[in-house]
Amino acid sequence: MSRLPSVDGDEDAWGDILNEYLLVGHHPDGTHKTAVFGIFNVHAFGAIGDGVTDDTSAIQAALNAAAPVGGVVWLTPTAHAYRCHGGLTIPPHVTLKGGYSGMRRGLQLWGEAARGSTLHVYTTDVFLTMSHNTILDGVEIFYPEQVTQGTPTPYGWTILVPSNQHGVTIRNITCPNPYQLLSVNADGILIDSIQGYPLMVGIKLGRVADVARITNIQFNPNVWAAAGASLRTWVQTTGFCLDIEQAEEFMVQNFFGYGYLRGIWFRENLSSTGFPGSYGSINNFGFDSVQEGIIVETRGVSNRQGVSLSNGRIIPFAGTVGARTGIKLSDTGTPQGPALSMSNVSFFGAHERSIWIQANSGVRMTILGGQSTEYTNEMVLCESATGVVRLVGVRSFNGIGPRINNLGGGNVSDTAPMAL
Question: How buried is 79 (Cβ within 10 angstroms: 0-12 exposed, 13-18 middle, 19+ buried)?
Answer without folding.
Answer: exposed
